[in-house]
Amino acid sequence: MLCLIVPLVLLHYGLSAPRLQNLEICQMDNNELHHKIEVLKNQLLLGNMQLQDIMENNYHSVKSKVFVGNVHRIKPQNAQLPTTSGNLIVYDHDCSSVFESGKRESGYYRVQPNAQYEPFVVFCDMSDGGGWTVIQRRSNGKVNFNRNWDEYKEGFGLFKGKNDEQWLGNDHIFNLLDKREMSLQIDLMDWQGNLKHAMYEDFRIASEQDNYRLWVGFYYGNAGDGLSGGSNFEQQWSASLKGMVFSTPDKDNDRFTTGNCAKENKCGWWFNRCHNANLNGVYYKKGNYSGEYDNGIVGRLGMDCGTP
C-alpha cells in the first residue's frame, strides 16, 4: 500500500498577547489543512482498495452492464472445478469458470453455481477481460418486464441471441452471488450514444426468505451514484436502494405507504419511496413522452435512458 506523507511545518513565533488574533487565524488555517489531509487520505485509501482489487482478482467479480436498460454480468474469484470421472457432468460455476476453462467465445453456456440446484443457461460476455455473467439486459424493448413475483424469481426473457433481453431470475442471481465477493457494474447508453458506467463493490442480495434484499458497497465511475439515492440525507432516506427489498406489482414490499411503486412503474425492482434509479422500467423508444409517473428506464446515475 502506498503511503502519502504530507509534512506539517509548525511555526512558533515569540509574539506578545495582542497578537492573539493572528494565532486564531493560524489555528483555523491549520484545522482546514488537517481536514484536507483527511479527505486526501480517504481518497487514497479508496483508490488503493480499488487498485488492489483489480490487481489481485482481475475483476473476478460480479459485473453488470446496462445498455439503454441493463446488462448484468457476474464472475466470482478463484473458481475451482471439481475433478471427477465416469459419466457425471460437471458444470462451470459461472462465466468466470467458463473463461478459465479455455472457452473464450461470448455466448450462452450452462452453469451451476450451487450443486444443490439444477444448472441453468446464462450469457457469458468474454470481452473486457472475459468471464462476465449477464444477469440482465435491456436493448430493444421486445421483452415485457411488467411481471409478477414468481416470474422475477425464476427469470424470463429470450436466451438465444447476443442482444436478447432477459432477467436471469432472483434465485439464480442469489446463487451466483452467495458466499462470493462480487462487484456490480452498470453501463448506460442514451439515444445519442453517450456511454457512462457505475461500479459498486460488494454487490449482494439476500435469499427469497428476506425478499432478495439488496446491498452495495463503495461506488466509483462516471455515471453518478444513483443506487445511494442522491447527495443529501433527505434524498437518500426516500430514494436510496441500499437495504431495500424486491417488489413486484403483485407483491408490494416498498416503503411507499400510500402507493405501490412496482405497480406504478410496471416492473419488479428494489424500490424505496420509490426510486432514484430503476433499470427495469418501461422501455420507451426514442422520442418525447409525458406521463403521471417516471416509469421508464430511469438512470439518475447521470442520464435517463428511454424514460418519459
Descriptive report:
This protein is an alpha+beta fold and 308 residues long. 23% of the residues lie in helices and 17% in strands. The chain is built from 6 helices and 15 strands. The protein has a 3-stranded antiparallel beta sheet. A 3-stranded antiparallel beta sheet has the order 6-8-7. The two termini are 47 Å apart. The model is unreliable at 1-20, 57-70, 77-86 and 301-308 (pLDDT under 50).
Radius of gyration computed on alpha carbons: 23 Å
**What is the structural class?**
alpha+beta
Q: Report the portion of residues in β strands.
A: 15-25%
Number-wise, the strands total 15
* Elements, N to C (H/E): HEEHEEEEHEEHEEEEEHEHE
Envelope shape: globular
Q: Main sheet: which strands, in order across?
A: 3-4-5
Unreliable residue runs: 1-20, 57-70, 77-86, 301-308
Largest sheet features: 3 strands, antiparallel
First-last Cα distance: 47 Å
Tally the helices: what do you get? 6
Mean of the pLDDT scores? 74
Helix content: 10-25%
